[in-house]
Amino acid sequence: MPRYRLLVEYDGRAFHGYQAQAGLPSVQEAIEDAIFAFSGERIRLQAAGRTDTGVHATGQVLHADLQKTWPARTVSEALNAHLVPQPVAILEASVAEGDWHARFSATGRRYLYRILNRRAPPALDQGRVWYVKKPLDTGAMLEAAQALIGTHDFTTFRDVGCQAKSPLRTLDEARVERVGEEVHLHFAARSFLHRQVRSMTGSLAEVGAGRWRREDLIAALEARDRTACGPVAPAHGLYLIGVAYD
Amino acid sequence: MPRYRLLVEYDGRAFHGYQAQAGLPSVQEAIEDAIFAFSGERIRLQAAGRTDTGVHATGQVLHADLQKTWPARTVSEALNAHLVPQPVAILEASVAEGDWHARFSATGRRYLYRILNRRAPPALDQGRVWYVKKPLDTGAMLEAAQALIGTHDFTTFRDVGCQAKSPLRTLDEARVERVGEEVHLHFAARSFLHRQVRSMTGSLAEVGAGRWRREDLIAALEARDRTACGPVAPAHGLYLIGVAYD
């Protein structure tokens, strides 16, 4: 029974998140339906990251266990054909080795958060960036972001509904850069808590707007209290851009 | 009576082209309605380029003659507020000098054509790129494109419905480059014939795919015959990115 590894891109606007939910369109259901249409097999996909409603991906990783063996190229081509016109694309399919698992073998996740930081609202990038009109001080954001790197109790930056047993996470990277009219925030960790990236981004935007100082961000982190978090940044600026495996 | 110059971005998917047409959504009507909502004045906009259905803009230039004088910043802010949620944004407004005219004073137009050239179809960029699966030889495209530069009778690359009196145009720039998974074609001229950029792009894609040689493109140009044109590239990969004024 071969296991196929799928590298996937999707536009989060079209879905109520990655995970299948009865009666609501999801990325998982779209791909599972395409697998059924192509192979006749009803399977359950496993995913490296369960992205929320509106969150995009350019590097989601999934796996599918199929009874029948197909050339990997056939799998990606057939799935893409069946996914039309939904905004989901299989960028690559390959046969996984040994007991590799899309979720449990993952050793790192990378997210990008895009802020459109200009006077005019987005036209071409509606639903793909967070529009922040007030000029953001990216230097101040970058400096403050360094306080988040390392192992911390991220209770402040975790959704109250987060199912993870521990609020401890190790943030390996928190980078802020201006790219034309946009501010990009890059985050990397072995794993993230629910809404952690959007919570950290919203609080860093407070620093960028001058409403918080770096010390306020540190105090928020150290409070280990969800109510100390800044406004949570919206889902539609967030992209799962990559998953690392050893 | 002040004349306001407007720099405009829009997503062409939402409109039946720039120009107002009874009963169909257009960029022109959207902005004229926003002007009326803001100022109470019913005016007719003038545009540097009349983009087709599905064609996008990041640098369209318009002008609006208003009876009342407003600070330019007020005009852009008020129009953006009234344009929500339509995918049109006024990037900048300024008061025009002398007899400056958005269309007649323009001395150059720049277009970008985006081709997504990878195996997988677009997910995040659906409706914003032309998806060409077969790998394109951008070197061959760039070399062939040079034959289009200069003053030519572009009858081959002009829509049969084109209203321009002369088929002669002077192409100042035709550049082809690979940008990640995309192929970008840049064109600049004082003005273009109807569907000229999409016609040239479609024919250059034939060269990139190896179905045409450079000599075939030259023969097509020299034929001065619309039927000699390659397949016209779709509207949704095209962007009006800038207008030049002396």
Automatic annotation (TrEMBL), chains A, B:
<feature type="binding site">
    <location>
        <position position="111"/>
    </location>
    <ligand>
        <name>substrate</name>
    </ligand>
</feature>
<comment type="function">
    <text>Formation of pseudouridine at positions 38, 39 and 40 in the anticodon stem and loop of transfer RNAs.</text>
</comment>
<dbReference type="InterPro" id="IPR020103">
    <property type="entry name" value="PsdUridine_synth_cat_dom_sf"/>
</dbReference>
<comment type="subunit">
    <text>Homodimer.</text>
</comment>
<keyword id="KW-0819">tRNA processing</keyword>
<comment type="similarity">
    <text>Belongs to the tRNA pseudouridine synthase TruA family.</text>
</comment>
<protein>
    <recommendedName>
        <fullName>tRNA pseudouridine synthase A</fullName>
        <ecNumber>5.4.99.12</ecNumber>
    </recommendedName>
</protein>
<dbReference type="GO" id="GO:0160147">
    <property type="term" value="F:tRNA pseudouridine(38-40) synthase activity"/>
</dbReference>
<dbReference type="InterPro" id="IPR020094">
    <property type="entry name" value="TruA/RsuA/RluB/E/F_N"/>
</dbReference>
<dbReference type="Pfam" id="PF01416">
    <property type="entry name" value="PseudoU_synth_1"/>
</dbReference>
<dbReference type="InterPro" id="IPR020097">
    <property type="entry name" value="PsdUridine_synth_TruA_a/b_dom"/>
</dbReference>
<keyword id="KW-0413">Isomerase</keyword>
<dbReference type="InterPro" id="IPR020095">
    <property type="entry name" value="PsdUridine_synth_TruA_C"/>
</dbReference>
<feature type="active site" description="Nucleophile">
    <location>
        <position position="52"/>
    </location>
</feature>
<dbReference type="InterPro" id="IPR001406">
    <property type="entry name" value="PsdUridine_synth_TruA"/>
</dbReference>
<feature type="domain" description="Pseudouridine synthase I TruA alpha/beta">
    <location>
        <begin position="8"/>
        <end position="104"/>
    </location>
</feature>
<feature type="domain" description="Pseudouridine synthase I TruA alpha/beta">
    <location>
        <begin position="144"/>
        <end position="246"/>
    </location>
</feature>
